[in-house]
Design a protein that fits this description.
- With 110 residues, the protein is α+β, with helices and mostly antiparallel strands.
- Helix content is 25%, strand content 14%.
- The chain folds into 2 domains: 1-40, no CATH class; 41-110, no CATH class.
- The chain has a 3-stranded antiparallel β-sheet with strand order 1-2-3, with no helix packed on it.
- Residues 82-110 have low confidence and may be disordered.
Length: 110
């Protein structure tokens, strides 16, 4: 998931932590304010950024690893093939810090 907040309260009006929810539940939620969107997954953001005309846009990911569950999710993310079978340009596990990810799936450490 791509979410700035630890809880769903501010954007969705739900008093739960994001990490305690699975995608089956999260995809049913809509933002309190217009246009009442759902929470985007990282793959949704990357696919959008791969759209023609957006080649110059970079995405800064501030990955906060606070639990073993977060570490396992990150390892899964970075160990599987990305969009169109592409892998990030680094082949090691991510470490705490910022990551700049280009829409085409190329990742570099900031």
């Amino acid at each position: 998931m791509t979410c700035q907040d630890a809880t769903l309260k501010r954007c969705f009006g739900v008093n739960k932590y994001v990490i305690d929810c699975d995608w089956a539940y999260l995809k049913t939620l809509r933002t309190l304010k217009e246009p009442h969107d759902r929470m985007p997954r990282l793959v949704d953001v990357l696919e959008y950024l791969a759209s023609p005309g957006l080649e110059e846009i970079w995405l800064l990911l501030d990955i906060k690893v606070r639990t073993t569950r977060c570490i396992l999710m990150l390892c899964t993310l970075f160990s599987t093939d990305g969009p169109a079978g592409q892998r990030p340009s680094h082949h090691h596990a991510p470490h705490r810090g910022d990551h700049r990810v280009r829409a085409a799936g190329e990742a570099t450490m900031a």
